[in-house]
Specification:
- The protein is an all-alpha fold and about 230 residues long.
- It folds into 2 domains: about 1-105, no CATH class; about 105-165.
- It contains 7 helices and no strands.
Length: about 230
């Protein structure tokens, strides 16, 4: 191992998982388009979620490694001071990358934070249940039931934070009766207040029974005009 070469761990990760911030902001505008917005949201959210979680784990692991090195070798050695300086630089690069991406996509980052917290809670509960089973406080069947209940409680809540809320469907249009047979399903007030009389109520002047198709009413004679004087 060459001690003269710096770590540059974050640079190697950033080269493989990230893309320029300018392209990311352009994709953020594409999310507003009606057709391609959903696909961009899925791809971008998946990539940014992986990046954010990786950056957080990177910072935590380097901080823990820094503490372990100080406990093992102390803080006064030259190698320890050099390694401490490089670790601080790597952590600073990861934090700077987070500060660039978090303001552009706050909704995705918040959903990833909630997912990480839910996963941490689930793992913590599982470890506590495993410790209780090893100590004899829980039987195997009780342990399996408890794990199933914790998973059933966490999974729907986790899905509700990572997936967008669907919009309610539009209201159905009013259904009008297509045939006279459907008029029996209407309320009595809708059928009794019809403005047109039924065909059976139409009577003819000659006294004949109307046929199935109603006949045209007889035409009235033309009005009499007053006669002129002297004619």
């Amino acid at each position: 191992m060459d001690t003269s070469v710096p770590l540059n761990e974050w640079a190697g990760l950033e080269h493989h998982i990230l893309f320029p911030l300018r392209a990311v902001r352009a994709q953020a505008r594409l999310r507003r388009l009606p057709l391609v917005g959903r696909a961009v949201q899925y791809l971008l959210g998946k990539k940014l979620a992986f990046f954010f979680e990786l950056a957080v784990v990177f910072i935590q692991s380097h901080s823990n490694a820094h503490k372990k090195l100080n406990e093992l070798f102390g803080k006064n050695g030259p190698v320890t001071r050099q390694l401490e300086k490089e670790v601080e630089e790597e952590v600073g690069k990861a934090k700077a990358a987070l500060e660039e991406f978090v303001p552009v996509f706050p909704d995705i980052i918040n959903s990833v934070k909630t997912e990480m917290a839910a996963r941490y809670m689930l793992n913590k509960c599982r470890s506590m249940l495993e410790a209780a089973m090893e100590s004899g406080s829980l039987e195997k069947r009780e342990f399996e039931d408890a794990i199933r209940e914790v998973s059933a409680w966490t999974t729907p809540w986790l899905n509700s934070t990572t997936t967008p809320t669907p919009r309610p469907p539009p209201p159905d249009p009013p259904s009008w009766p297509a045939s006279p047979s459907s008029a029996s399903s209407l309320p009595p007030s809708a059928t009794s207040s019809s403005p047109l009389p039924p065909p059976s109520a139409v009577t003819c002047t000659s006294g004949a029974t109307p046929a199935s198709s109603p006949k045209r009413p007889p035409s009235l004679p033309p009005p009499l005009l007053p006669s002129r004087a002297g004619t």
